[in-house]
Fold these 4 entries.
Entry 1:
Amino acid sequence: MDGPRIAVESLTKRYGAVTAVEDASFVAEPGRVTGFLGPNGAGKTTTLRALLGLVTPTAGAATIGGAAYAALEHPGTVVGAHLEAGFHPGRTAREHLRTVAPLVGADDARCDEALAMVGMDGAAGRRVGGFSMGMRQRLGLATALLGEPAALVLDEPANGLDPAGITWMRAFLRAFAARGGTVLLSSHLLGEVEQTVDDVVIIAGGRVRHTSSLADLHRLARPSATLRSPDAARLALLAADLPGATLADPATLVVPDLDAAALGARAFAAGVEVHGLAGSGETLEQVFLRMTEAAA
Ligand SMILES: Nc1ncnc2c1ncn2[C@@H]1O[C@H](COP(=O)(O)OP(=O)(O)O)[C@@H](O)[C@H]1O
Ligand SMILES: [Mg+2]
């Protein structure tokens, strides 16, 4: 599979006085799963809608393989998408797919194939109105797969999935990317997609705050260390010497932006008797929150 590169370039979308997205730029590369992450209202859906030609940008552009969605000759065979679901509750899963199929040039056999790919062959004749969130997400993915696209754009695909569903979705999307496909998915919870994504784009307040590999995001986690000592006097002196350090109690020093080894060395040099030393530091979720809060 030869997935297209997805590029969002200086995209701005205003709705009257509301700026939903402001000057957003990022790419999603083929062969990788890109997580488009940010709190509710950050501008994720608006960006994905612009990418799919469903909203007109106020400024900037979004392209798939170098072309705007509207300029693609057979868009359904290039990119499969599932945005916030609007399924007709009275239709069965198979009927839903057969309604969409003509738009992407898929036949009835492909509809059944797509249902099988998402593990829903057994539910083909059941009405969507009775589906759980997890089944809706699977049906959405089946819809996106209909045209055999090399790119998938999925809005909150992990939303409402149980842990088994998340594991299944992760394996599916990772395998799709491993075959060369491009995957761009949004989520308001980093934890939900942390094990699924290779790259992250963090958006908040309509602005892109960070783009990197997930590995590089891990590296931005700030260390911190805690040291316990019975020598309150020297501990207080040490605290005064370390920027940002605080005493949780007279015997417990907490120091940001320093790991345990570095704090141990400082304590040793200061002649502080050490009874306990532990490194901690930000979790990935805390890094994510820090970046999205900087928006406010
Ligand atoms: N059609 C619209 N008209 C007016 N405001 C909108 C419209 N669509 C989205 N917005 C606003 O744009 C902002 C971003 O929304 P959205 O893109 O849905 O964020 P997300 O998907 O990250 O939750 C929100 O403040 C939302 O209320
Ligand atoms: Mg949204």
Entry 2:
Amino acid sequence: MILKADRIVTGDGLTVLDNGAVYIAGEKITEIDELATLKAKYPDSPVKEYKGASIMPGLIDMHVHVGYWRSQIDAPTYNDYKIAYFAADYLKKAFSKGVTTIRDLGSPKNLSVSINSAVKSGFLEVPRILPADAPLCFTGGHSHMGNGWEVNGPWEIRAAIRDLIKRGAQWIKLMESHRSDTPEFTQEELDAAVDECHRVNKKTMVHAGTQPAIQMCIDAGFDTIEHATDLTADQAGQMAEKGIVWVPTIVAYTQTYKHIMNNLNNLNNEGIDAVTRRFIDQRAYFEKAAATYKENFRKLYETGVKIVTGTDLVYYKAPVTPVASEMKYMVEYGMPAIEAIRSATKTSAETLRIDDIGEIAVGNIADILIVTGNPVQDIDAVENVAEVYQSGKSVYRAC
Ligand SMILES: [Zn+2]
């Protein structure tokens, strides 16, 4: 199959190929050349032409809680079966946003690994998932009332990590702060978690929004720090030096704050879920967080810290995997569009250590997003999804 659009945005943060076409054989991109050349070489191959459109890599959402059902209005009716259906429905919708790979940041025990197993058996077609399974928190810590697994002390943490890996977790998630300046795990516990993961060649991510939690997590050497809302330029520089990737999730705080304000005077409305009610109580935190990203993002980006796109929206009826919205905030707050595209594609793939996705390149898996317009000139174009391919197969087409 040959795909042709007005341009190819490769995802490397630099290259835009005008007049290029992509040849897909099986699940891989095997050639990139001029349309006429590919047509002459493969005269029997079907050609799909997208006028006024761009070819780019499928998007990667680096922060999703797979199957986060607690904000559903009818949450009490959910058992494990219903949660699995709910998760499958959400994940299928992610294709319509151009998302082909998702990093799970903590979900009900065994859910994300079971979805991967169902995909492998051919029961389900959803984006590629890198499961974290249950996130680890200290007793009473952030997420303990949700999916969190309460563990304390270096050896309990190491044992939990071994158990998660045994069950199929590909990343390990820890929670280190929760809307206050009090860190949760001690430095000794954080150091043990990172050591245990790296010792067995697994990567680890941590929720840290405030100080001193952020500095403790930088010192421990996590692979990615989630949110890091109060990150300073000095700390971003330390992260750049140590190769720690920042997942700001601007959209989570900014969009949730808007959602809070929309519902503030509407508390008796039955349509308000339990999670939104909790967020309304925490609205001062969200307001400050949204303002902090806006004020600091440019200077943090300029330190050279690697930044990737994560969305983390969990309230009832929140947009599904709004990676395009995160990219728009990054551009609005000071990052060139072509680099925001790299953040959502190649930089994310590098962070995941998957070297054959995230870039339109010969030999890579054909995870491809076709958007109408030119996202390098206008990042809003990323929302104009025309068609999405995963491993060379069309998984979504706008009608
Ligand atoms: Zn999260």
Entry 3:
Amino acid sequence: MKRTELHVVVGVGVAGCLAAIARSRAGYAVIVLERERARSAGTYPVCTQTSNIVSENHSGAEYPFDPQSARDCLDGRIANDRFFPELIYSGKTYSRIIASQSMMNDGHDIVGQCRSNMDVLRAHYAQRCQEDPANAVFGEPSAICREIPDVPGVRDVAAGFLTPQRGMNPVLVSTVLDWELRQCGVDFREGSTVTAIDRRADGRYLVEYTAADGSAESVIADQVSLCVATAAFGMARRLNPTLTFPRLFMALREILYVDLPDGTDKNFTCLKLEDSYGGMLSPINEHCAMIYHPPAAHIMNIVMDPETCEFPDEYTHYLTAGHPETEKRAEWTLTRLRDFYPELARSEILGAYLKVAINTVADSRVRRNIGVFGVQPGATMTVLPKWAMCVVNARNELRLALEHSVANGNVEAGEVDELLAASVRSCWETRPAWADSDEACTAQATKHAINMNVPEVLALRFAGQNRAISG
Ligand SMILES: Cc1cc2nc3c(=O)[nH]c(=O)nc-3n(C[C@H](O)[C@H](O)[C@H](O)COP(=O)(O)OP(=O)(O)OC[C@H]3O[C@@H](n4cnc5c(N)ncnc54)[C@H](O)[C@@H]3O)c2cc1C
């Protein structure tokens, strides 16, 4: 790099964390501006909003109705496997995708649908492995997707499938990303709410924000990366009023953490398909699980106003004051999932979370990857409909940033490919001292659970896994 540029990343859910890490590794000086503040000393408030309830590192297996989403997710899963350390899985093994018997009985061939999706995944993985042997992160293409004879301890099963999809622990994801941001030397400014961004005559950006002490601050950046989830559309449109987005759906969803007073013998996620027949049991450890039942979880779906790009007023209200049906829907989820998962018989709800999912279609069976937007030269926007695409999108947004630096004469064109490859290399090349101590690792993760407003019990890993942290 001929001249070190200053880049500002706005928002640090998983998209912003990855953008900040990738840009730093590429040699840029990076300032992160994040609205939230840490509640635990010595931590950064990362992934405290939508990213605090994510439990599945998808591989496309959950989209049997949409081959393109399946392929996108598998690409994301390969990139994530090369980036994140084993710790994020907290001892969980591969998720079980389950076709429901009751759905078959009602005349929907969900087993056949899953089987043909397995063919899509196998073929796509084989192609990726052929393109680059380093993509063979799950082993032999013929072995990565297979039907299994049974899923013990689950009711209403017509067929089970084992695929590269894997459950993870969002608190451990934050723990890893916090460490990596520190390794990269990112200037992290928490409690900083960005209020305006303007492109100056010299092509650089004036970023104005309210700082943690309430003062009005600003910084001039060579480039900016907008990673503020739904708020990014409005910010991007203000920077470039000619920018157009696809029709965007914002779906209000509810997801729960529950306790497991009788434990569980499943150290994997059960993703039982589909809609009223379906429900996810995602044990985070033996004490706690995330659960989801689509008809109870899907509260509302609103199309974003294409002109203002504003967040719907009702959502702002529900996210702060709660939705009147939150409790009823939580009970509905738990009651329905008890039909499938016996370990929930005595479970109680630890927390119900309202979140907004983004998509370009109304149908939750079809998931469109929105990709990365070049808003203006030197300004990108990354909105992730799926956590699973985080590393792929970070690489794509860095490519745009590097191309802009090449145009400005700050980076040699010949450097770009090497910088891109280095920017998404594995985390934990330098391992934290606490990685080898169960107690210290759990203490670190507990601090993030507090920041993320999720039950502290999430900080525990499956028994017997505490020592199995590898890089
Ligand atoms: C119920 C539900 C379950 C899901 N489960 C999965 C799953 O299992 N697997 C999967 O792949 N995906 C899942 N997703 C999708 C996943 O949650 C998102 O793709 C991902 O978390 C989005 O991350 P993000 O960084 O874009 O946004 P966020 O995590 O929301 O981060 C945005 C950040 O921007 C900050 N911010 C906002 N405004 C400002 C401002 N003005 N100034 C400064 N900072 C600001 C916020 O504080 C926040 O930290 C799920 C979504 C929902 C709704």
Entry 4:
Amino acid sequence: MIISTEKSTQNLTYPYLPPSNSSTTSPNQSLLPLTAKTNDRDRLEVGGCDVTELLQQFGSPLYILDEVTLRTACGQYRDAFKHYYPGSSQVIYASKAWSCLAVCAVIAQEGLGFDVVSGGELYTTLEAGVSPEKIYFHGNNKSREELQFAVDKDCAIIVDNWLELQILAEITDPAKPTRILLRLTPGIECHTHEYIRTGHIDSKFGFDPNQLPEVFKFVAQQPGLNGIGLHAHIGSQIFERQPHQDLGGVLVDWMAKALDAGLPISELNIGGGLGIRYTEADDPPSIEEWVKTAAESVAKACDDRGLAYPKLISEPGRSLIGSACITAYTVGGRKTIPDIRTYITVDGGMSDNPRPITYQSVYRAVVGNRMSAKPSEIVTVAGKHCESGDIVLKDAHLPLTEPGDTLIILATGAYNYSMASNYNRIGRPAAVLVKDGDATIIINRETYADLLRQDRLPQRLKP
Ligand SMILES: Cc1ncc(COP(=O)(O)O)c(C=O)c1O
């Protein structure tokens, strides 16, 4: 495998279409899904489907997930680890990025395992047919019930704190010890949003390294716990390679100490975190470059210390699914405030994509029913929610739009559906999986009846 140099071939100007031979492109560097192209009606097509027609068929707004892009990202991670790491490896999908049956099923078919962070994600993954042996259960405050669920199913558990260790010591069976990995804060800083930075010492996640010798001792004494590994995750949407290069040495040092303490460590999990391109200003390394850095760093740290290579696990979320999905909206009205700003509105917003209001995230958009129209005005795209901050795009350079046009936000696969809400009692959009001209519903649009499903009206309040 050769490190891809196709950054220069990326189309970073409107309408951001991927190169026609996109099979070698790293999906996390592409603004649109790899199958995106303009069809002879001047409309955006993804997975062989005309996006504007999809809106007519399935309603608006709509999440559109491109199977080829998702499978390509899985394959690039899998193949790069095989190529650059001399030991065994397993890529596991951080399913918090988007957990639903179809997404789990596609990723499982690609041979990946799963990171889940709640009983609900665990249940979804199991229902999708994933083998528990490939599921790793995360979370900084797992309940006793959630832990019991994971123990009963024989999943590996990534232990975050003392309370969890104590509960696990009580509920596990010495005749069938539970595989655990210990999460630690490695003390590595990276430049990303404060809310998605987790590897620095002042983090709510994982054991403080000062406590690890005591933790190792405790685990070694528990017959129901099989301390097979260590884990660290340093943050999300990271473009630098240095933090993951540093992480290898830190984890291998702790592995040596854990082995000395009698733990049978055979797995190191380096977390996820590789960033994706949301705008032309973003310049993430390719999947292959990231894997090379991370894998070679762990291998070298093992060589330097004369240790056997552990099974190397990584758990990307965003860089597997982020660029595989777009969200298509229908344009509504327009409001021009002279000398200040022009707003256009769309039929969704913070309830289907809370990232702009939560993280001030910036996206790019195209007008999907007139792909050759040139950007000609600066507009702010507002969502339809009763919240001034519900802005999908601020000051975007877009072609002139009219009510009814198809406005498509790019790279919405990660942390959009999974963070969606019913704010303002707006039903969450449907999602379709597209491939070779076929579009299949993978999540139904929520109806008004769905919104009332959990409501109960006490008898005495009935009209
Ligand atoms: C423990 C852990 N692993 C993996 C991930 C996935 O990160 P990303 O989507 O940036 O790859 C996260 C994201 O927050 C995480 O907290």
